[in-house]
Amino acid sequence: MINRRLKVLQYTWRNRSLGGSFSHWALNCFSPKCGWLAQQAIAKTAQDEEFWQFQLKGFDGILYYSRGLPLQSLYQTITEQAYNWQWHYYQIPQTTVTAADVVFDCGAAEGIFSFLVRSQAKHIYSFEPLPDYLPALAKTFGSDANVSIVPQALGNRTGTAYLQPAGVCSMISQQDTGLAIAMDTIDHFCTTHQTPINYLKADLEGYELNLLAGAKEAIWQFRPKIAITTYHQGSHAQDIRQFLQGIHPSYNILVKGIEERQGAPVMLHAW
Asked: Are 119 and 70 in contact (CB under 8 A)?
């Protein structure tokens, strides 16, 4: 943690950029660790033989999490989504989920983003191909009629893809090795399910541009609000900006954050 924050400080100096406001920069650099911050957002914890059960402050319902998965990963994601100063926070004022929105949660993982916005959205499609997450997602959203769990990946083609399983860091393989999974495109999914897309949230461990390449028609037709991670590749913030404004020159773009490995922005928002 100390090394990560020191690297952020180094990139702050090198790039002469705070990655956003001074207050958000200071909180990202000097706040307590995510384990402590996550506990402040959790109202109650229970467990059974299969799942951890979490009630989050200010939210109804129970978030289930498989006991075989590491709690630290969950705490990190809770922290990222519970505090609006976090650089990984999706719902800035310009990209807030509203009652009319059909949301595509691409890379749902533990389901925290879908859990937090399910009472705000018209409908949520939570896309998650990793089997380790699916039992808990089914438990968490089993009674939510406006949440559909879709056990597949999204990319620039339909068919079979291969996943290198690593929890929240699972990646689509560039070779035909790993776990075989189903892949769809957003364009194809919107057509076959006759659904719009009004809000696109994505964290795909470097596969974000592939996702967008399979969503050109939907982006052109529906012009969704977008909150998408950019820190996996140093050029992604600029590449994604150019891609989106090539479809809709009127897109407003905001990038924020400083990633510790290469100093890249953490997230891009478009609206």
From this structure: no
